[in-house]
Design a protein that fits this description.
Number of domains: 1
CATH topology: S16 Ribosomal Protein, Chain: A
Number of helices: 3
Oligomer: single chain
Largest sheet: 5 strands, mixed
CATH architecture: 2-Layer Sandwich
Number of strands: 5
CATH class: Alpha Beta
Strand content: 35-45%
Structural class: alpha+beta
Shape: globular
Distance between the termini: 23 Å
Amino acid sequence: MIKLRLKRYGKKREVSYRIVAINSRARRDGRPLEELGFYNPRTDETRLNVPAIVKRLKEGAQPTDTVRSLLTKAQVFEQLKNA
């Protein structure tokens, strides 16, 4: 199963995350199938590749709870319904 989840990177106490599509059995920082965005919790900055995310969701990818809340804030599910 493909999951949309966060991949941690950055220095200690200066963490950032990449939003990736990855096999659910792979480790957290393993090799992703595709990188779909970026999230910085310290500045609350989010950059998303919305067309790629919508494509993955249509293919059946399941977002984790955290990624789902980020996508809801960015109104990605609204675009999924309209497409």
